Amino acid sequence: MKILYGVQGTGNGHLTRSRIMAEHLKEQGLDVTFLISGRQKKDLFSMDAFGEYEHRQGLTFISEKGRINKFKTLKKNNIKKLILDIKSLDLTGYDLVINDFEPISAWAAKQQGIDSIGIGHQYAFLHDIPTEGSSWFTQNLMRYFAPVKFPIGLHWHHFDSPILPPIVDVKLHSTDIIGNKVLVYLPFEDQSYIVKFLTQFPQYEFYLYGPGLQFNNVSNVHTREPCLVGFKNDLMSCKKVICNAGFELVSECIHLGIDVLVKPLAGQMEQISNAKALTHLGLGRTMNSIDKNQCELFLAKDINIHRANYPDVAKYLVDWLQEGKWHEQQGLADMIWKR
Fold first, then answer.
1. What is the average per-residue pLDDT within 64-83?
2. Could you give the angle at the alpha carbon of 302 between the alpha carbons of 300 and 305, nearest 5°?
3. What is the separation of C-alpha 21 from the centre of its chain, rounded to a whole number of angstroms?
């Protein structure tokens, strides 16, 4: 089976779970080519898992100080180039397109009549799940941004729908936890402001990852440049996490049983809805802005959530993919949740 796997490069969540899928696809000897879009190639890192991948410009969004800038987002994205890339992507010889919310490969598969399977959190929004900040525009964005024939949604609960648990690296495990160590990942916020903000809590050691940061220590704030291995090590040894409300990192926290406080990206329906679901399920805390009182309360008082210990969802998915019964999703979901 020859597969094209399209991955949205905006943020790191899509890439994180696609790395895990790539490992299992390779173990099964499947012929997979990855296509990444939504971020400049020079800004991608830790890409070895994807081999000789293809890259396109795709679509992305621009944020400033924790909020989506709609005008700059419209100005940044080149719709004419997107259409040309869709039309020029030749899928001859491919048996299947797998997609993690990547628009070029999704639309090319639709136009060329190639079977496509969507695997990602965004596809959960096609079902009745907790949402907030939804509108006609956001509903259609979820439906038509990267349309697929067989969508597989991922979430922290199935919500009585054929939704699977998150894809996480099951090799992650908390070791030698440092009681005052806090991992902070707020890539859509002003990083210099975050550094200054965190120094208000001198009894805690903050390990801050974000765009433009370098390896440095500023009082009790330890800034780190993007690094997959370093980030995972700090995650496994931290007591708490403060982050935006992206799906993948929060899933890793729930998997490990780490207390998490999220600040959703303003104007981004998915993250606002994730924050609502997190509260609804009792899996973490939320704040709508970078708030000193909220952070102080979170740092001082443990949530003590139950460690989810998710199964190896990627392994089950790859086995299911090879069976070819792609319309039978409810049975797959029921089987995995029972694990």
1. 77
2. 160
3. 13
CATH code for 2-166+311-338?
Answer: 3.40.50.2000
CA distance 65 to 283: 26
DSSP-assigned letter for residue 41: G
Confidence check: pLDDT of 110 > 70:
yes
Quickly list H helices, the chain: 13-27, 70-76, 79-88, 103-112, 136-144, 191-198, 228-237, 247-256, 269-280, 292-300, 313-323, 330-338
Q: pTM of whole model > 0.90?
A: yes
**218-to-180, 206, 221, 327 alpha-carbon distances in Å:** 16, 10, 5, 53
Predicted pLDDT of residue 69:
66
Question: Nearest CA to 34 among 58, 6, 61?
Answer: 6
Architecture of domain 181-300: 3-Layer(aba) Sandwich (3.40)
Residue span(s) of the chain under CATH 3.40.50.2000 come to 2-166+311-338, 181-300
Confidence tier at 245 by pLDDT (50, 70, 90): very high
